[in-house]
Amino acid sequence: MEERTWSSRILPGPHGAGLSSAEAREAARNILAGLHTSPAGVDNVLTVVTEMISNASRHAGGATAFQMTARAGTVTVQVSDCSLSPPRVQPWAPDTPGGFGWRLVNQLATTGVLLHRGGKTVTATLAVAATVQA
Predict the structure, then answer these.
(1) pTM of the entire predicted model
(2) DSSP string over the chain
(3) Mean pLDDT lowest for which of 7-11, 54-58, 114-118?
């Protein structure tokens, strides 16, 4: 049986405002619909997408590209930005707002960072289950 792959790549608009979490989540939902991903899997992917785009906006001047590739059983999310500083897990401070995003992404996915001439690309790969089709 042939393995199917779904992929989406989004670049920022002409005004350079960066990509919004809403745009990235919409692309992710469209891809996940084709996979018949379980509700828990959809939630996990959307959480990772939101956190990665938010972190690029908050810490790296905004996302310069978003790509998501899905195959049966796995989803890979890639977010690029202009910063050469890799993401880092913040010290645990439950009484302080924020600082949990990268920790959460690492709990839900296997992550990696590739530094390149234009900045970096952060990758998160998640295992996702499909719903049972009747």
Answers:
(1) 0.86
(2) -PPPEEEEEE---TT-----HHHHHHHHHHHHHHHTB-HHHHHHHHHHHHHHHHHHHHHHSSEEEEEEEEETTEEEEEEEES--SPP-PPPP-TTSSS--HHHHHHHHSEEEEEEETTEEEEEEEEE-PBPPP-
(3) 7-11
